[in-house]
Amino acid sequence: MALLDATDVTGGYGGADILCGLNLTLSRDEVVVIVGPNGAGKSTFMKAVFGLVNVRAGSIVYDGRDITNNKPEDIVARGICYVPQERNVFPSMSVQENLEMGAFIRKDDWRPQMEKIYELFPRLAERKKQPVGQMSGGERQMVAMGRALMLEPKLLLLDEPTAGLSPKFIDETFRQVKRVNALGVGILMVEQNAKQALAIADRGYVFSSGQNRFEDTGRGMLANKEIAEMFLGG
Ligand SMILES: Nc1ncnc2c1ncn2[C@@H]1O[C@H](COP(=O)(O)OP(=O)(O)OP(=O)(O)O)[C@@H](O)[C@H]1O
Ligand SMILES: [Mg+2]
Q1: In this structure, what are the phi and psi dihedrals at residue 170, rounded to the nearest 5 degrees?
Q2: Would you say the C-alpha torsion 218, 223, 229, 234 has a positive or negative sign?
Q3: Helix 167-182 crosses helix 111-120 at what angle (to 10 degrees)?
Q4: From the CA of 108, how far away is ligand 2's center (Å)?
Q5: Do residues 25 and 1 make contact, with C-beta atoms less than 8 angstroms apart?
Q6: How far apart are CA 124 and CA 101, in angstroms?
C-alpha cells in the first residue's frame, strides 16, 4: 500500500484552479522528486498535501486514511512534516531553540531524537547556540530539515531544499536526504536542481500547468532525452 496516494487533486487559492487533476503516489521507502517549470503548481501541490490549499476535487490518502482538506495540525499529528520553500526557520533563535520548536507538540521525551539529528547533522551539533539568522544558506536548510525531523515523521515534504546553495552544499543536502530516507522516512521533494535530485530519487514526476506531464524512475527520467531537454535543463 502506498504511504501517500493523491488522485485527481484539483484546487487552488480561491480563484482559478492551480492544480488541475494531479496524481502522485509514494511508498514508505521512496524518495520521490517533483520537477517542472516555475508556476507549475509544485509548491501548491505540497501545500495541498499539507492542508494549506483548498482541494476542490480529488483526494489525498495518507497511510490508508483520507486526509483531504484536513487541518495542518491534524496532518502533522499523523506523521507528515513540511519544510516550505521560504521562511522555514526562526532566524533570531539558536539552532537548539529551532529544534525545540520543532518538538513543540510532542508530549513525550524528544531528547533522543534531538541527539539523532545532531548525529545526522554534525555541523549543527557544533553550532547549537548560534542564531540561525547568522548561518549559511546550507546550514539553515539543515536546521529546517532537522526541525521537521523532531516530530519523527513518516513522510517529509521538502520544497526546494537546495535552492540558492553552492554546489558543495547541494551535494551534501542530497546526501542527507538519502540518509534521512534510509532511517525510514518517505521523502517527497520539489527540486529545481532536477538532474542531481533525480540521481538520488527512486521516482520522479514532471508537473506543468497544474497537470502531470511525465513520470518515471529517477534513472528513466535522466535517460529520456526529450524530458531532459524540456524540463531538466538539457
Ligand atoms: N498564495 C497564493 N495565492 C494566489 N496564488 C498563488 C499563491 N501562491 C502561488 N500562487 C499561484 O499559483 C501558481 C503556482 O504556484 P506554485 O508556487 O505552486 O508554483 P511552483 O511550481 O512551486 O513554482 P516555482 O518553481 O517558481 O517555485 C502560480 O501561478 C502562482 O502565482
Ligand atoms: Mg515552488
Answers
A1: -60, -50
A2: positive
A3: 140
A4: 34
A5: no
A6: 15
Give the cell for residue 83: 519544510
CATH of region 29-38+70-204+213-231: 3.40.50.300
Q: Which residue of 10, 18, 162, 188 sits with most ligand 1 atoms within 8 Å of its CB, as the best mutation to test the pocket?
A: 18
Q: How far is CA 204 from CA 9, 56, 86, in A?
A: 18, 25, 22
> Tens digit of pLDDT for each residue in 139-178?
999 999 999 999 999 999 999 999 989 888 899 999 999 9
Q: What is the pLDDT of residues 38-92, one digit of tens each?
A: 999 999 999 999 999 999 999 999 999 999 999 999 999 999 999 998 888 999 9
User: Residue 19 and residue 152: Cα distance in Å, rounded?
Assistant: 29
User: What residues flank ion ligand 2 with Cβ within 5 A?
Assistant: 43
pTM: 0.96
Which DSSP string do the residues of 130-187 spell out, in sequence order? SBGGGS-HHHHHHHHHHHHHTT--SEEEEE-TTTT--HHHHHHHHHHHHHHHHTT-EE
